[in-house]
Amino acid sequence: MRKTYCYNCTKEITSDNHSLEHIIPNACGGRLTSRDLLCKECNSTFGKKWDAALAKSTNAFANLLMITRDRGEPQSEIGIGVRTEERFNLPPGKPPVLSWPTIKEDLKKGEIEIHANSEKELRKVLESYKRKYPEIDVEKGVAAAVHQKEYFNQALNLKIHIGGPEAMKAIVKIAVNFYIYAQGKREVVKHLLPYLNGEEELDIVWMYHPEERVYKAEENEVPHVLKIIGDPKEGVLYAYVELLDAYSFMVLLNEDYTGEVIDIDYVFDVISQKTKKNVTELSLTKKEIKRIVTEKPFNQNQAKSRVFRIRQISNRLHDQRELDRIIRKAVKVFENEPSGEPISEKVKNEFFEQVSLDFAKLMLHKQNSAELIKEISKKKDGNSTS
Q: Is 57 strand, coil or helix?
């Protein structure tokens, strides 16, 4: 049996200290794993320090795309309503919900307007007011509440950030993981270990959004892309890391490379869960790579176009999910029909009426959303030119 060793501390990996390492973090929807890279202690240390920072940076897109994870629950994001300025939680794959009840007081009229997610929340607010205003009838207030169930009708401002020393170390870790996983030699990248252990800083990683895509994704694909290139003629070993089609990075693994020619890749579509290999193109000189990681250029237009593409795919996924919900809801009218007998015209009509009504509501919501987005875009354009 082949012995394996932790590439960080060099301890032998055994059944007592082995650990399942996600080469691309689980929080990003990574599926490529190995037990032959890091011991349990080193995996835990790197995970707490660096992977957690990367997970926080990519969580918003992972939630929008409703990505499934091997373990652990995804965290909600926070958004601020453009129209109402209310704070909302954005749970993965679910509609936004108020982070806490919002209250508007009109002391002149003696009125209080409360927006809450549930009767339980409403009751708590009313009970707190009753301590100040004993004349308030809590039960009467709960009974008089107007229950509304409708599509979310405003845009949200959502902060998305990528970068920072911790997240960048996580990107380098992904590159080193993939290199070692592909039978790369520890000696070639061991000079990066002080950096990964937080003992020193190096200019070896930066965002890289080329005009020509390294992997040309199909229409509904959202890929993770890993690529390692070893070029002994240029004397350089480098990696390209792309997460969720939106974030991409260049990693300089070794600028004095003398090993064999390497050109390996891994592409994983987080939507279809399918893997591809030998489907990427990238060729850079050592000078070009060093310029990227030291001068730190940023292709803003490419970065924006990638975010826009992810938003479009996310919208399609959520539309399909909502259509499935509409059909499942309408199908319930058949539950009381006798088995083995023809479906009555009355029930058929109920089914089509329910589907038509809910579908019309969805289409109206989408139309209103499109108009709202146009209005917000115009305001932004106006502000940027003023």
A: helix
On whether the CB atoms of residues 91 and 63 are closer than 8 A, the answer is yes
Residues 6+ apart with CB under 8 A from 376: 82, 155
- 65 by DSSP, 3-state: which? coil
DSSP 39: B
Give the span between the Cα atoms of 215 and 280, in whole angstroms. 5
Q: Give the Cα-Cα-Cα angle 290, 296, 298 (nearest 5 degrees).
A: 125
Helices (H) and strands (E) in the chain, counts: 10, 14
Separation CA 27–CA 284 (nearest Å) = 30
- Residues forming a β-bridge with 226: 241, 266
State the Cα–Cα distance between residues 69 and 30, nearest whole angstrom. 8
Q: What gap in Å lies between CA 10 and CA 180, rounded to an integer?
A: 13
Tokens 């009840």, residue? 101
How far is 51 from 103, CA to CA, in rounded Å? Answer: 39
**CB-CB contact of 187 with 110 (8 Å):** no
pLDDT along the chain (386 residues), means of 10: 92 95 92 96 91 89 84 79 82 80 80 86 89 87 81 73 88 98 96 97 96 94 98 98 96 98 98 96 98 94 90 85 78 77 79 75 63 56 45
Q: The whole model's pTM is what?
A: 0.81
Task: Round to whole Å and give the CA distance between 88 and 66.
Answer: 18
